[in-house]
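Protocol step 4 of 6: record predicted structures for both targets in the notebook before any analysis. Target 1:
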Amino acid sequence: MTGAILSLLGVGVIAEAMRLPAIPGQTYGPGFFPAVIGIGLLVFGAIYAMSARHPAQPVIQLEGEGIAPDEMEETAPERPFYGALASLVIGLVATIALWESVGFVLLMSIVLTIFMILLGVRFWNAALVAVGCTIMVYAIFIKILMVPLPAGLLAPLGL
């Protein structure tokens, strides 16, 4: 049932995306990304619906599998997620407050690095992935989508 609902939602998103007016001079209109998301919802909803109809049977049953649910240990988290929630809210508020002055590339690189470190990623791995992904997203928005993003502190470099 969930897969069918996701697929129907995808069809609705695609239909609404096609109704958005084209912008003169741009290859991609405002409905491009909503249409991509709608196609994803449609396809993955259909896959989910199909997999729910034919559940996969395990080829090998490992030791300990098949234990009755009432005999299994509870795997509740040891601590509440308030710290993670607070860091997310603080990160979003800081992003909104510093968006224009710091700029997209620098700000998103810092915020993504911090979030990845909080998730347990090593500093250098987090920093490299954050900077690389941020520059890639910036290039897509500037070059392909022609959407200006704030350069902030990096404006003297011509970003």
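Target 2:
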Amino acid sequence: MERIQFYPPEILKRVMLQDAKINGISISQLTVDILMEHYGLAVATENKKALSEIIDEVIDEVKTFVKDHPSGTTFDLLTASETFKNIHMVADGKPSTNRATVGKIFASKLGKDSFKNIVIVRTETGAIKRSPNRATLYRIL
């Protein structure tokens, strides 16, 4: 992907920073999402959603999963969230980073608020334990 410099007026910059922070995405991702939508280049799907909406849905589904399962349960995001499972791996003929972005945002919420009782499962050597599909495993404490 080519890098393009963008110099928004200060007021636009503040609004974009706030919107990106609220949605847990980078300014770059926010800009790309807005421009793809504006130019009609966003991946056309029946239930097309912005990345920020997908993140909110995944977080809500994981909260419900955690509430409905006992402590000691091990899971990955593919198991806990139907929305996460349905994120397309390819966009515009190129690999999509949306699943990775959602996973990183979820991981940043561990140990806080609704996810205080969730930890990443680690091997005896301290490496992150992964499911057979290479997704990070989490445990409910």
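Step 5 preliminary note on target 2. The mean pLDDT is 87. The first strand starts at residue 74 and ends at 75.
Proceed to step 6 after PI sign-off.
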